User: Fold these one by one.
Assistant:
Number 1:
Amino acid sequence: MGTFPTGVAVVTATGAGGEPVGLTVNSLTSVSLYPPLILVCIDHGSASHDAIVDSGRFGVNLLKDSGRELSDRFATGTREDRFQDLGWHPGPAGSPLLDDALAWIDCEVYQAHVAGDHTIVVGRVVDCDHTDDDPLVYHRGRYRKLAGP
Ligand SMILES: Cc1cc2nc3c(=O)[nH]c(=O)nc-3n(C[C@H](O)[C@H](O)[C@H](O)COP(=O)(O)O)c2cc1C
């Protein structure tokens, strides 16, 4: 799958104590238009897994091509460090959304399917918006930029 280029997103949710949590993902896929559904695959070992499934809502924050530091931040370190000195705000469905996202999708959990060591979390889109900036791209374990016209 590393040969398949993807965008990069940070999935966010609210933990049991009301704190924002999140992790970097590239398993984001559109699923349905009517109703509007998307999915992400979350590792059972993720510290954010239960917050995403149990809170019943999650946000998807697509990253700009300037978002490498954000991607690394949400793929490493502790949960507490990730939101340190970071601008975010609650979305329409209540998920913590990053201020500097390329686009955002606020979702309610529609279904959760266990598949191997991940959970396929299907979200019903409550609201979304986007900017016209370029996306961060991930390919063969490296960040890339879009090239060409
Ligand atoms: C580009 C990129 C894509 C990733 N995609 C996923 C993904 O789709 N699902 C997943 O569970 N982890 C994914 N990860 C790994 C998590 O971001 C990483 O394991 C993170 O430390 C999990 O944090 P948590 O345990 O606090 O939730 C990805 C990491 C990177 C750098």
Number 2:
Amino acid sequence: MSRQGEQAAVIGAGMAGLLAARVLADAFDEVTVIEKDTFPDEASPRRGVPQGRHIHVMLEAGRSTLEDLFPGFRRDFLSAGGLEIDAARDVKFYAEGDFLAEGPHYLPHYAATRPLYEQLVRRNVSRLDGVTVRQGCRSVDYRIDETATTVEGVSFTNEQATVEELDTSLVVDATGRTSRTPAWLKRHGYTPPPVDEVYIDLAYSTLLLQRPPEDHRSFITTPSSSNPRAAGVLPVEGDRWVVTVAGVHGDHPPTDIDGFTEFASNLPAPDLEGLLEDHPRASDEIAHYPFPTNLRHRYEDLDHFPEGLVVIGDAIASFNPLYGQGMSVAALEAVLLHHILATGRLSDIGLRFFVRSTDVVDIAWMMAVGADFRFPQTTGPKPRSTDLTSRYLSRLNRKAHTDGVLRDAFMRVLMMERPPTTLFHPKIVWRVLKPTR
Ligand SMILES: Cc1cc2nc3c(=O)[nH]c(=O)nc-3n(C[C@H](O)[C@H](O)[C@H](O)COP(=O)(O)OP(=O)(O)OC[C@H]3O[C@@H](n4cnc5c(N)ncnc54)[C@H](O)[C@@H]3O)c2cc1C
């Protein structure tokens, strides 16, 4: 990677911001990450990332990319208490009326809380030459040149609550779903990106349970038009399970333990009731998170965008979290940013990155939104051939109740390891469409 400039800034030290900082460190002398929160000493949730209290599944695309970006990540992860389980056998996966058969091949699957992933990535990034992570600093504005064509820096309130300015060759906005870049573009005479919003009216409730160290049970139940409820149970560090129940289109889980247990009893996961009965709680509160819509800013459709600025992660698109894609999409986008930087020029970096990132965002969006349109109440722009694909996937899942090869093919696509086209390989299509005896 050739040197691209002296100073880059990343706003937001969530997963997308930290992973962007990792790739920028190869191209800039200094990379400053500006984060409004202060970081807890423990791997515990923080205010700026409220979703950190809820189950976070790391897909294979994210798992393997973390290892690429931080060689030895697995060792750090396991020694910090994270678990590696087998997604083919340890994870019981319920879809279309039953659990899927076990898969034939080992699929490594990390299991940990979201704060642990973030803490480990933050540690790795903070160790890189030239990277400074500034906590307790809130970005307030981009600095733009007189012709309003180039972002030349960022201003932020610093640790002493005074305004500080930083000159940059590149700013990366990784402030998440509430990113203010669209409003800022409008204020400076640019057209903001068109927005796709797909309404799903989802909510999560989550608690932690104590777990016997050797018990790695994990299960996921997906919602269907006959039951809008879902659940995810994952063994995590500290001998705990994170237990999330969720419901779409207004069937929201309560935040008191009796209501939570009652909600869980209407899920097709008999183990879940047993877990709640047999294991003491490891958290006092039940965390709640409403998630009304999948939200996508189509930056790739813009003709004009300032030089010196890129947007990444949830600030581009945030997907129904039931499909566990956000951290992995952020990781894949960081790799794409690396490739863009490796071209050796910064001009048009924003637009070039947005067009390139559609390779990743389109797939995640199609999978999440496509599944959401199984509910007649879902509204918003519907991707082409959604209904046909849904019918095919629904049949594939039913066949996978007894066919581990189909489970394997499906899980690898869900985990963003393989592209969805692999589900249309003749050998898979044959298994899906052949008549059931
Ligand atoms: C309920 C829920 C469950 C989820 N489950 C999963 C899952 O199972 N698997 C998965 O991969 N993904 C999941 N996600 C998505 C995942 O959390 C995100 O996609 C992923 O973390 C990437 O987010 P991000 O870094 O872009 O933004 P965020 O995580 O929102 O981080 C933004 C950061 O920017 C900081 N910030 C904001 N404004 C400023 C400012 N002005 N100045 C300085 N700092 C600022 C914030 O404090 C924060 O640290 C889930 C999301 C939700 C809501």
